[in-house]
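Q: Here's a chain of 178 amino acids. Please give me its 3D structure as tokens.
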Amino acid sequence: MDSGKLKFHVVCPKGQVLKKNYREDWIFDYGCITWCKTSQSNLTRLMRLQKRAARIILNKPTRTPTFELFRELKWLSFQSRCKYHVCLLVYKTLNNLAPKYLNNILSFSTNSSHNLRSIQRYNIINNRPNTNSLKRTFSYFAMEIWNSVPSHIKLIRNIMAFKTQLKTYLLLQDCDLI
């Protein structure tokens, strides 16, 4: 961003009104995985944009709590949306539904001689990074997020059921945080 400012534009066909079932996917999901490890100030700006979009869509006053807005729209917070998309990409990689190059980026725990819990949970393994720049890489971030997801969700074999369970899990986490 050249000016250092994030801009939000709601583009609607002439005379069309935003409905309550309108979803934020169109703008917040675009590049979500790229933006998830940006600076805290940029994350704050993105959260403000998401809150502003929710208030515009629902036509609510500025002082309306974020929790109520997101619950009514069934939205995840921006950080949770990032986690959702990272987990979905890891799930697709694990089940051979993603491009092959991701198999080189993500290493799942495998050990044929021992029955370890990390294998049963489909955990990602990664060397501990020794610099902050390595902590911002996709492979490290994906490992942190994926390994924190409960194993009963990771073991789901149907992608639609996985998406539903993961979103429910993240919504419950958002309720605890907000």
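Q: Can you summarize the key feature?
A: The first strand starts at residue 107 and ends at 108.
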